Amino acid sequence: MSVPPPDPGLVTDLVRAFLAEDVGRGDRTTEPTVTADAMGKARIVAREPAVIAGITIAAECFSCMDRNAILEPVSYDGSRVTEGEAVAEIHGPLRAILTAERTALNLLARLSGVATFTNRFVTSVRDTPAKILDTRKTTPGLRMVEKYAVRIGGGHNHRAGLYDGILIKDNHLLAAGGIAEAISRVRSAARDASPVEVEVADLDGLREALDAGADLVLLDNMSVDAVRAAVALASGSVVLEVSGGVNLGNVRAYAETGVERISVGALTHSAPSIDVSLELIA
What we know:
Blueprint: H1 8-23, H2 30-33, E1 39-46, E2 50-51, H3 55-65, E3 70-73, E4 80-81, E5 86-93, H4 94-124, E6 131-133, H5 143-152, E7 166-168, H6 170-176, H7 179-189, E8 196-200, H8 203-212, E9 216-220, H9 224-234, E10 239-243, H10 251-255, E11 261-263, H11 266-269, E12 276-280
Parallel strand pairs: 6-11, 7-8, 8-9, 9-10, 10-11
Antiparallel strand pairs: 1-5, 1-12, 2-4, 3-5
Helix pairs in contact: 1-3, 1-4, 3-4, 4-5, 6-7, 7-8, 8-9
């Protein structure tokens, strides 16, 4: 599967900000211990099995520190690696390699963790109609690259932001005075023909959403049995999405109800980082 990479300009801006956060006024350990002309070589190694994501972003960390610090991938985004397997090699000015090390590893570990965790969900629903989607529950500043990692893991992206789609949630419904009124207001204000999704908590809410002409309905925190009943009630007239309370233990049961979409906030807010390390090569 070919996954378009994040915008290079935005990645560079992110990496420069992260390096500035870590390096500040200078690396007070590396600068006195490593001579300015010292050259070196290192490898990044996975300490556990993983789906790799973020190789090009890690490479940007080294090149932003010094354009002569070059990362050469051994594995690529989407590759599966085993414990102890080399992911990449870096060569160039040793100061740059050691100063950029932690920022590069943090990003690679985080994004590979998201990709690996996402892939576990995707594998769990294989051979069902359901797609696994992320949510907006992302790390501030990292949404673009975390959503990229979700795609690398085989998942799909929900809205990139509030500007990128219409999802009428419970607080919107309360403010507007109900499902029908909220949908009416959204359609009147819409600048295009974007589909309107509305969140419901039970079958009565689903009936209201269907009557009001929703294009998609998000079934929020409903049991597997209730979702199965919702699929029967909707009978294919709208796209149904499950969200809330989904985990690796129950995602397969939800997928087997026949819903088309399952959104999982945990893909980005609870994915454990992968253990990776950088080792100098003598």
